[in-house]
Amino acid sequence: VLLRQELHAALSHDQFELFYQPIVEAVSGRIRGLEALIRWRHPEKGLVSPITFIPLAEQTGQIIPIGRWVLRRACQDAAALYAAGERGVPVAVNISSLQFRRDGFLEDVQQVLADTGLPPALLEFEITESVLLDGADQAIELINQLKNIGIQVALDDFGTGFSSLSYLRDLPIHKVKLDRAFIKDILTNRCNAAIVQGIITMAHHMELVVIAEGIEEREQQEDLVRRECDLLQGFLFAKPMPLKDLLSLPDFLP
Ligand code: G
Ligand code: G
Ligand code: MN
Ligand code: NA
After folding, report:
1. pTM value?
2. What superkingdom does the record give (predicted)?
């Protein structure tokens, strides 16, 4: 009933978890990164999707403490992987625009890096075009500051909503993530295939790395390899899962 109130208590009751989904090199399928995806383990409802509670958390302001928790936990996990493996695996964290545009975000990030000892090169942020709502200049400055400390930034869900091609030019991002909506029927819909090819070609001319999301079939992988997409993510490779399950995958660490 009052999901809003329960959400308020969820953090103090330790009901959030992070799942991780591998991001793989398109050609080889080898793991090149992980995306952290929050889950709410509700005492009665079971696992609640962030599609339900992130918008609610954004309305109530809860997204700020929840976002801080996600960042800290993801950096702790990535630091543990780094300690266990040879080179570590970069972890991508979704940052809500409210969190990104809030004063003190950069300081929070630096504090978490200091506390966890995670090399900044192993942290990546996924933002959406809504970070530009209050004007582009502030967002550009912050992305540059993150870049200066060694954190990469990806533009998520690209191609849907209000994403403009000029964002690829104006934002000092490192990567662009093609929304699943274009990938779903890339094999049968010539318009979607043309959009995907166009974005990949453009992005490469701007020295951006391209990730395609929602890969479910081998033929989609093959098609995107032909189109020279760099990285892929989707159920074909692995679903989002708890870190301990990932660790038990064969050939997990490079
Ligand atoms: O993995 P999944 O279907 O549950 O994710 C659904 C949506 O929730 C995606 O759009 C994803 O970006 C968003 N999301 C998942 N985890 C986080 C998080 O930690 N912070 C924010 N702000 N969004 C998240
Ligand atoms: O918006 P964002 O890219 O952060 O969201 C990632 C979402 O995509 C998560 O909800 C995740 O569970 C979902 N996802 C990841 N791979 C696939 C896939 O292959 N198919 C579908 N349908 N969803 C996927
Ligand atoms: Mn994302
Ligand atoms: Na996305």
Report:
1. 0.96
2. Bacteria
